[in-house]
Specification:
By secondary structure, the chain is mainly alpha-helical. The protein has one domain: Multidrug-efflux Transporter Regulator, Chain: A, Domain 2, CATH 1.10.1660.10. About 55% of the residues lie in helices and about 5% in strands. It is built from five helices and three strands. The chain has a three-stranded antiparallel beta sheet.
Length: about 120
């Protein structure tokens, strides 16, 4: 049995959940400090994965979430409150998406009744 082929590195660039960014790079990308990323982690807004050496690694999805919290903090919202707001916004977006899916007609429920 041949060994499992590792994912193509190019595929990882398209994966929003791949933990590609170090703490320093992630902080730089969203215009924050490493301390801010630690704070949103402590508030459980995001949970970075850890490298084999124990270093935090962030995905693009996590950086978008952290950037939204940073916007709120920059506007004067305390970090804990900003994290709660972002969590609620994310939950609302998911609920709206599910609601829309459930409202869409399916092929099985087409308009014609069986004779």
């Amino acid at each position: 049995m041949p060994p499992e082929t590792p994912p193509n590195a190019a595929d990882r660039f398209d994966d929003d959940d791949y933990p590609a960014y170090t703490m320093g790079r992630a902080a730089e990308m969203i215009g924050a400090t490493p301390g801010f990323l630690r704070a949103v982690g402590e508030a459980r807004l995001i949970t970075p994965l850890r490298s084999e050496g124990g270093h935090r690694r962030y995905s693009r999805y996590q950086l978008r979430i952290a950037a939204r919290a940073r916007e709120l903090v920059d506007g004067g919202t305390p970090v804990d409150a900003a994290c709660r707001i972002v969590i609620l916004e994310d939950q609302l977006e998911e609920a709206l998406r599910i609601n829309e899916e459930l409202r869409r007609p399916t092929a099985d429920s087409g308009g014609a009744a069986a004779s």
